[in-house]
From TrEMBL:
One of its GO terms (molecular function) is RNA binding. This is Small nuclear ribonucleo LSM2. InterPro entries: LSM_dom_sf, Sm, Sm_dom_euk/arc, U6_snRNA_Lsm2. GO terms for cellular component: catalytic step 2 spliceosome; Lsm1-7-Pat1 complex; P-body; precatalytic spliceosome; U4/U6 x U5 tri-snRNP complex; U6 snRNP. The keyword Oxidoreductase does not apply. Keywords: mRNA processing, mRNA splicing, Nucleus, Ribonucleoprotein, RNA-binding, Spliceosome.
Amino acid sequence: MLFFRYHRTIFYVVNALARTLTRYSYSFFKTLIDHEVTVELKNDIQLKGILKSVDQYLNIKLDDIQVVEELKYPHLSSVKNVFIRGSVVRYVHLPGASVDTQLLEDATRREAAAQQAKAK
């Protein structure tokens, strides 16, 4: 019984963490609209383009896309804009100039402090 309770507690903690990360990711990506990003998919395709929209499920819409390895994926060479389901995204590569790391670190610290205060 203890084993089950332990895993159920971890499940709730992981779900709460996932919701917090999704909320942060969504807010963060909203600040990157109209910036160039590279999205790496779980099937190893990398698409570079202008981020036009993102939703709370981290679905992404890119315009003016280019396939990073165009010779490997020639069927994508004529595609100019895409909608990418959030569940198939592996990584989003961001240009360093468009990310304010200090602001991101401060927001992370504030959220961690709020979570600790909630837990007490």
